[in-house]
Amino acid sequence: MDLMKMKLRMRMILFTVAILSMFIASGVWAEPQKILSAIDANSSNCKVVSQKVFDFKELGQQEFKSSALLMEELRKLGFKVEGDLKVPADLVKDGIAKTAFRAELQGKGPGPTITIMLEYDALKNGHSCGHNLIATSGLLAAAGLAQVMKDTPGRILVIGTPDEERGSLGGGKIALLEGGYFEGSDIVFITHPADRWNADMRYLAMKRGTFVFKGKASHAAASPHKGISALDAVVLMFNATDMLREHVRQDVRIHGIIKKGGDAVNIVPEIAEAEFAVRALDTTTMEETYNKVVNCARAGELATGAKLEFKEPRTSLKAPIIVPPLTKMVLDQAKALGVTESEIKASVDSGSSDLGNVGNTYPTAELKFKIAPEGTPGHSDAFRDYAGSEEGWKATIITGKAIALAAYDLLIHPDKVKAIQEKFKELKAKEGK
Ligand SMILES: [Zn+2]
Question: Are residues 40 and 75 in the same domain?
Fold first, then answer.
């Protein structure tokens, strides 16, 4: 490099530094910059945490080591942390969610409450849903925000929500919602690794029911006229449900299995049992369809005389209310951090999650972040390997930063929080209509 070029470059650098320090002095960039620097400073530690949670690979309700580690990290960041959360005893054994926790960090004076949810449960093949990265992207965000809270209004809640994978049993977020641990939240954030970036939150509401029919046993050849076939009632229920399929919206899913259909071919089946799950993109449509499936079971009962024994399930999964201005906020932050428009792609497939119950109660945003090539199926061994990869970690850092910056923006702009809450209420009132 010749001298002229070097001088020119030096001048450019000095100029940039001067402009930057002007902004920093004026406070425009100071706090967000502090957040980003704190996240960078914490990233190697959080990466170790992520790897540990990945290696623990604890299943739902058994995430003892993962939750203890995350609680310890949050304490180090200055959060007040409580574990062993009291929840309804019919949802979690002994009424104590031993692997859940709630951490709180007060800011400077009153202001909005921003909640960040962490997940850390694994599947049988390890972290094939990448929840280790949900936990640590949230931890990174908490580390960034912890740096500025002493000068920022409001407070941060970090809620450790176990057992997402078996969420329909109600042991995770549903138990914590019922236990009141989200109370006071104004806006809730969560993240999820994926094969693409988006904030679609496309989750199906779901209800599962078990339908038991009680008929009358009799010799199938000698005295069939004296018997009542419980299996016939189940078969009629399936037939009626199949007719219903023609008259539901495209996103509605009805799936059933026969769990018991009789004991021997020469005995009229006395007991038969079916299990059905009904799903839809909004909770109202799901509930309406579910009630129709219950009527299909009643049709089987009426036609055969086999008595239907059926109880409403204790829990069901709701669909989140998607609030576009909140979704946009999170995506805009991701874009500002270098995620390109072409990397953001709509979700095509969807399952259900207890995240929906939170997102149906509080305005919630979920940032999906790309850790794997497009088309890599979730819960696969391949996806698990990406959840432990270097590439996966890089996307996790961007995600932690995006969530922290969006949360900070809301903390200092209660007007934005209010507008999002209003929109949430408006959209919830219109759900399924
Ligand atoms: Zn997951």
Answer: yes
